[in-house]
Amino acid sequence: MNTSLTFEVLLYLNSYYFGLFAVCEIGMNVVKYMNFPDLKHFSTDFGILMAVCVIELFRVILARKGNLTERKWPVLVAIFLTIPSLAGVLYFMIWQSHALRFEYIICGIQVGLQFVEIVTGILCLLPFCKTPEYY
């Protein structure tokens, strides 16, 4: 199977899933802020969420553009941008002060998608890096 196609399908799936993830996280943060008025880290949580949204947006755009044009640098930068995005999702899953059960589920799915995207992105880079043969 073509790894470029697999990578593109995963990026397409993640672009829609991350939109759902971001909307759910924003909604849950608003609900937690209303129900737990003594939250000390609300601004930190919201700032990390906005940073993860921006990073993930640029990551998906770079990866799709690099994959479609078969250029290695945009895909490589997108793979490296997965690290801060993954750290932000793990923050919501592990280190957040009040994490809901639904957050564990959606963060686990997002971590799984990002891990599979890293693996397929690296496999997708291999054909891009070989030298062209001229006949």
UniProtKB/TrEMBL annotation:
GO CC list? ciliary transition zone; membrane
Asked if the record carries the keyword Heme, the reply is: no
The residues that cross the membrane are 15-34, 46-63, 75-95, 102-128
Output the lineage of the source organism. Answer: Eukaryota, Metazoa, Ecdysozoa, Arthropoda, Hexapoda
Source organism superkingdom = Eukaryota
**Location in the cell:** Membrane
> What does the UniProt keyword field contain?
Membrane, Transmembrane, Transmembrane helix
User: What Pfam family is a match for this entry?
Assistant: Transmemb_17
- Alphabetically, which GO biological process terms does the record hold? non-motile cilium assembly
- What is this protein identified as? Transmembrane protein 216-like Protein
The keyword Transferase appears for this protein: no
User: How is the protein disposed in the membrane?
Assistant: Multi-pass membrane protein
